[in-house]
Amino acid sequence: MTMRKGTQIILEAIKAQGIKQVFGYPGGCVIPLFDEFLNYPEVQMVRVRHEQAAAHAADGYARASGKCSVVIVTSGPGATNTITGIATAAMDSIPMVILTGQVRTPIIGTDAFQETNVIGVTRPVTKHNYLVKSVHELPEILTEAFFIATTGRPGPVVVDIPVDVQTHMSEVEFPKGVEIPGYELPQPIEVERIEAAWEMIEASCRPVIYAGGGLNLCLGSEALVRFAETTGIPITTTLLGQGAIPRGHKLALGMLGMHGEYVANYAMTRADLVIVLGARFDDRVTGKVETFLAQAKIIHVDIDPSVINKIKDVDLGMVGDLKDALAQWTAKAKALDTKAWLSELAEVEAKHPLPNYDGLDTADGKLRPEFVIRQFSEITQGEALVVSDVGQHQMFIAQHFAFKHPRTHLTSGGLGTMGFSLPAAIGAAFSKPQWPVISFSGDGGFQMNIQELATVKAYNLPILIVIFNNANLGMVKQWQDLFWQSRYAGTIFEESPDFLKIAEGYGLPGVRIGKKEEVAPAIKKALEVKGPLVLEFMLESDTCVYPMIPAGKEFKDLIEGAAT
Amino acid sequence: MKSKIEGRHVIALEVEDKPGVLTRISALFSRRGFNVESLTVGHTHQPGVSRFTIVVVGAEAELEQVRKQTQKLINVLKTFHVLDQEEASDLELTQGGAKNVQHAVMRELALVKVHYDKESARQINHIVERFSARMLHWSGEDLVLEFSGTEAKVDAVFEELKQVTVLESVRTGKVAMSIETK
After folding, report:
1. Residue A455 DSSP symbol
2. Do strands A273-277 and A207-211 pair parallel, antiparallel, or not at all (unpaired)?
3. Of the four listed, A148, A564, B106, B135, which is most buried by Cβ atoms within 10 Å?
4. Is the ipTM of this complex over 0.90?
5. Which residues 67-126 on chain B approach chain A with CB closer than 8 angstroms?
6. In angstroms, rounded to a whole number, what is the distance separating the alpha carbons of residues A468 and A524?
7. Where in the numbering of this chain does the Thiamine pyrophosphate enzyme N-terminal TPP-binding domain appear (chain A) (predicted)?
8. Which domain holds residue A30?
9. Rounded-to-5 percentages of helix, strand, coil across chain B
10. What's the rounded Cα separation, in Å, for the pair A279 and A455?
């Protein structure tokens, strides 16, 4: 039996997870914990410039690597600043453990300086949370926290640790195993269900796989592609499912939903069987629920029983591991006769490609974002970690960047958090140092965590920081154009800062690109640079993302946008 | 297809007896806009395990969703959607639901403090006899009575009590226990 300090127990727990970096910001109630990092050089404390960024950075680290990540912040405002980051991770099922400092145990509940009821405010946005009342509980709680965050449907777990608990001593060891009586992990899927599903698949004429973020979370991409290739079933993915099948694959239909591809949404209306894998019928995917998949039988596989029949009643629901289901099906599978179906889809795709305006000059002579994104896609050949923010550029990236590998499009899908990209790219750069990391933001979102340029500089991270500057909030403006008579309430930035001067102020080089012919050379040069670089693209201010199925509408209401 | 029509439902939960578990559960019900009609909680024969009985009004499809989300809470051990035998409908659940819907017997307890005097004596004695009430306390003026039974019975008690002066009353809300049905 050895006596250990609370902070030592915490560092040992982090080390045991194989975590090399944690993301944090100091404060009064975590001074002991920050101090302990000086004794553990094998775990790096990445100090960011805002607690929200610490949460997004940890999120990016987890999305890129698939490993659990750790955030450490102080009590009160430190903890509340992480809420947006925690909610972002919760919506997209990202494994994260957030350690928040808390005021001393004897003064909890007295409105002490920098005290917040962290358990209360984080409860709705976490998978679970804990207040540690004694140092002797720490080994068990930390073990449970990491276990809960990473198993089943992953998610963020908050552990609130009073500052006196951090300095108290305990002999209690880490438990050998984890026993949480109320926490059920899914059992292997029953053979009968697998067989029933396979019979439905075999009997179908126009099957489609609708694959979601679950496939990226469970690293099920290979199993997915093998099953699809064996059977000849085409695949459409959600925003978070991108990369589960390489974009150029003959069975890949692209993204579905509000800004999905015409052919993907067409396939959903024509399908007689849809196999939903690790997706949750988000409203941006379904549009009008009553007509979505009205013609199709539905098989739904998910690790979370509560998403089955949540939005839409399905014909066959299965709770369990996607890879397990796919492997069992593949073992039975044979090639289905989908030739006619695939050629129907190919024809539709050829008739209804994504709008392409490359041949046209823009009204103000500025760049089109899709063009810039396709240049990035072609030059990198999809061999990059792309981190996007939220809005038009996010959708343009989803449409026009040819993602080749799983977990290479890191984006806030469910919560739609502006300001996500730059800090998430920081986390991604730490977890995948061998990959080029490209952070895309609009000029709106970029200014929501602009202070993280300092973190990029401090750690000299080789991130390409791309700003799409159109001097407005494009996606909201698009809705105003389409549904609010172009009344631009709050969406135009009459004054914008000089982003390159800001970059310079933070000690980072920057390039401004305004002409088509400058784009490719600038990207090529940027990719050769070892170190951070800011690239500002001056974009046309009047773009709209098409195709678009307006919110709550259906495929027949799809606005295609003019193709050239 | 599960019913979208609003109705009364009873959910029983077995939970770990840990701080905050009540808040976690009630937050899920309130997020979906369910109005909790009654909620009882108490220990069971198993150490560290408490049992909730929650009566809510809402659509069955939504309630099944809340039940599943409740089951996901780390401190929740078991959830049951229970049906009064007479309320039992042809409930059909597509996925893993059937085993969670159970028939049950339900009871409720009420304490009532009434003003007892010469004028009201006959009426109160009648109520006590008719509903097999227990007399718990007598102050010389006020009488505390205990009633228990089905919700319908307790409703009838309160109907009768309108004829006398009730000073205070409290109902526990339903508690439920599942039963085997043939």
Report:
1. H
2. parallel
3. A148
4. no
5. 68-69, 71-77, 93-96
6. 18
7. 5-117
8. 4-170
9. 30, 45, 25
10. 34
Please tell me whether residues A224 and A332 are part of one structural domain.
yes
Among B2, B74, B95, beta carbon nearest to A148: B74
The tens place of each residue's pLDDT in chain A, 564 residues long, gives: 789 999 999 999 999 999 999 999 999 999 999 999 999 999 999 999 999 999 999 999 999 999 999 999 999 999 999 999 999 999 999 999 999 999 999 999 999 999 999 999 999 999 999 999 999 999 999 999 999 999 999 999 999 999 999 999 999 999 999 999 999 898 999 999 999 999 999 999 999 999 999 999 999 999 999 999 999 999 999 999 999 999 999 999 999 999 999 999 999 999 999 999 999 999 999 999 999 999 999 999 999 999 999 999 999 999 999 999 999 999 999 999 999 999 999 999 999 999 888 877 777 778 999 999 999 999 999 999 999 999 999 999 999 999 999 999 999 999 999 999 999 999 999 999 999 999 999 999 999 999 999 999 999 999 999 999 999 999 999 999 999 999 999 999 999 999 999 999 999 999 999 999 999 999 999 999 878 999 999 999 999 999 999 999 999 999 998 654
First to last CA, chain A: 74
pTM for this structure? 0.93
How many domains does chain A contain in total? 3
CATH number for the domain running over B106-177: 3.30.70.1150
The secondary structure of residue A285, as a DSSP letter, is H
For chain A positions 281-340, those within 8 Å of chain B (CB to CB) are 304-306, 308-310, 313-319
Q: Where are the domains of chain B?
A: 6-104, 106-177
Q: Do B74 and A310 touch (CB under 8 A)?
A: no
Place of tokens 């090529």: A524
Same domain, yes or no: A275 and A418: no
Angle (deg, nearest 10), helices A262-270 and A339-351: 140
